[in-house]
Amino acid sequence: MSPAQDLLASVFGFDAFRPGQEEIVAAVVQGQNTLAIMPTGGGKSLCFQLPALVRDGVTVVISPLIALMRDQVRGLHEAGVAAGALTSGNTEDETQAVFAALEAGRLKLLYMAPERLASAGTVNMLRRIGVGLIAVDEAHCVSQWGHDFRPDYLRIGDLRRALDVPLAAFTATADAETREEIVARLFDGVQPATFLRGFDRPNIHLAFSPKDGPRQQILQFAAARKGQPGIVYCGTRAKTETLAAALGQAGHAACAYHGGMDPADRRAVETRFQRDDGLIVVATVAFGMGVDKPDIRWVAHADLPKSIEAYYQEIGRAGRDGAPAETLTLYGPEDIRLRRSQIDEGLAPPERRAADHARLNALLGLAEALVCRRQVLLGYFGEEAAPCGHCDLCDTPPETFDATEAVRKALSAILRTGEYFGTGHLIDILTGNPTDKVQARGHDGLPTFGVGREFDRRGWQAVFRQMMGRDLVRPDPERHGALRMTEAARPILRGEATIALRRDTIRAAAARPAVRALVSDEDAPLLSALKAKRRALAETAGVPAYIIFNDKTLIEMAETRPETLDQMARIGGVGATKLDRYGAAFLGVITGAVADLPHPVRRKLAGRGAGDIYDRLMQVQADLARGATGQDKPMSCSASLIAKLAETRPRDMSALTRLMGERRAERFGTAFLDVLAEG
Ligand code: ADP
Ligand code: ZN
User: Fold this and answer.
1) Residues 453-506: tens digit of each pLDDT
2) What is the CATH number that goes with domain 609-678?
3) Is 162 exposed, middle or buried (0-12, 13-18, 19+ CB in 10 A)?
4) Centroid of chain to Cα 401
5) Is 189 left (phi over 0), alpha (psi -120 to 50) or beta?
6) Is domain 3-196 in CATH 3.40.50.300, yes or no?
7) What architecture is domain 400-502?
8) Is the CB of residue 43 below 6 angstroms from any atom belonging to ligand 1?
9) 524-593 CATH fold
């Protein structure tokens, strides 16, 4: 085993590298300059933390986010690694402790905010302590044209020259321009070893739904995930507050978060979200950069994001620990109108506006996709993929129909009314609804009046929305959102092209989502017990729950049920230090719970038949635990006895008594025989 692989298991408790990590770690360990572009949640931090342990000297980590640095330092401490941070968030004592550890040569990783680089003292200090590697997190902050520009990042190039050590830069932002800027500013224009990791996040389930009572849709989505931490993104500040209140009423722990709030209040929400393992934050996109919680289990969009990039970034906050996460994005014609007008009314130059429309179109194309969403999403980022089996369209392929005629009727209604009207009026014309407005304009005399009676209003709304989504028509901001035809629609109008639309979105609302669990029913009680233990330990230690063990680790524990510390050590995320600290406590939960939980036996029962009987026998025995009257002394049967009954199916009392003994047969026998006779 290589030293890196060894540390991966012993310190970090992972049994394998995530895709891409191994090559990056190897390059960084060898001392090459590296630039790694990996999606959020891809596991960037390990790519400098692990080399830091292998290489001589201190690794300096520059990161723009104080909360994130503190979090990583805490995580490293838990894993038994000597790390410290110098940030403006430190107490004087903390800073002194970091300096003392540095002077004593004990630190392996030193996290630092970029502002520190402004002082000559810092650079001298770094020279003295023997830095072996510089790691730059969120390297795109060096880009002056990006949204996250941090002027102090421009000093990093000087630092590299001054220390003359290798530099490893990491970012999730991949566009070519930003990459070039990073190379220019951090590496003096010399191309480093570059790694571009895929964009797929296979553990995230993707789903879109047209708005249809959106508040109810969000409430249902949250209800099916009750107690799991999630984010609901909203288009407006006001909506974050009303939706948070509605979720609160429905019994969830929910907070609003937006840019108009007091900074202290915002920080309080951030901190609480980070620590709690069941809070919902209802937020505008202001809730973003600082969020580094790996166990966010779901993200919902109450309104359509502004572009496909924004969508990807926002859903990407879910499931960074690699455990299952779910997303739902709602959209409707109003969203499309709003996003288009924001672009049109913005101050950007025309080329930029055209590009923004294209990015919005890409997102709408994803919303109205007819095949696997992940294929469409990854395709946009230039990656080919097979149907994923993990999105709403793979779950339930949409029914499509030839909508060429319908679209032509709609276009004709638009053109014959001079491109001066919005959807409502156009639908009145198509369905032959002689409103005052229709009559006043003489639109009841048009040849298109009443030609679209094959759909009701709702049906036409779906057609118009999909037409907007395909950019066949666009709302014109100068005409109060009246629809105008685009060039893309001309071939359909002329009869040179056909078009298919989705039928299912024309029909009534989607069914209620089933309550989703992270594990099977059998393992769910154990998982909650493990989570409760984790919460207690986290509270005692004053750290977020995932610092102890992340969800994925607990899920693996619940599913594999280690019985010894040796077996526990083989679980992903259980390194040597954590095994020492927490192994016994969690083992206790598992072995304690297994006594009550019959499932390993249940699992062994071959075929559904025996399993069903087993379940019914269990139920009957629970009902009769205190006798038929509920007054008797408690009595129960072991899981293996019940399993034996389910397998051998004795048909009479004497056979039953032989297997379970007089006393139990007396209490349970008749009821059991009834179950066995049905089976
Ligand atoms: P990002 O790339 O967004 O910075 P992180 O470094 O925070 O991602 O890692 C995201 C999550 O993935 C963390 O919870 C981390 O513990 C986990 N992780 C990283 N590497 C591995 C691995 N090789 N195996 C399993 N989990 C990993
Ligand atoms: Zn799919």
Assistant:
1) 999 988 998 899 899 888 899 888 777 778 999 999 999 999 999 999 988 655
2) 1.10.150
3) middle
4) 33
5) left
6) yes
7) Orthogonal Bundle (1.10)
8) yes
9) DNA polymerase; domain 1 (1.10.150)
Ligand 1 nearest-atom number relative to CA 322: 12
Average pLDDT over residues 616-623: 80
pLDDT, tens digit, 9 for 90 and up, residues 277-318: 899 999 998 897 667 788 999 999 999 998 888 899 899 999
Give yes or no for residue 38 CB within 6 A of ligand 1: yes
To the nearest 10°, report the CA torsion of 520, 525, 527, 530.
-170
Is the CB of 5 within 6 Å of ligand 1?
A: no
Closest ligand relative to 42 C-alpha: 1
Query: From ligand 2's centre to the CA of 385, what distance in Å?
Result: 10
Residue 114 Cα to ligand 1 middle (Å): 23
Over the stretch 180-200, which tens digit does the pLDDT of each residue have? 899 999 999 999 999 987 788
| CA 51 – ligand 1 centroid, Å | 15
20 lines ligand 1 (CB under 6 A): no
- Between the CA atoms of 358, 462, 336 and 310, what dihedral angle is there, to the nearest 10 degrees? -60
Query: From atom 5 of ligand 1, which residue's Cα is the shortest distance away?
Result: 43
Residue 626 to residue 632: CA distance in whole angstroms: 5
Max Cα-Cα span within the chain: 91
Q: How far is the CA of 469 from the centre of ligand 2 (A)?
A: 19
Do domains 3-196 and 204-395 share one topology? The answer is yes
Q: Return the CATH class of domain 204-395.
A: alpha beta
Ligand 1 pocket check for 616: Cβ under 6 Å: no
> 170 CB less than 6 Å from ligand 1?
no
pLDDT (tens digit, 9 = 90+) per residue, 218-260?
Answer: 999 999 999 999 999 999 999 999 999 999 999 999 999 999 9
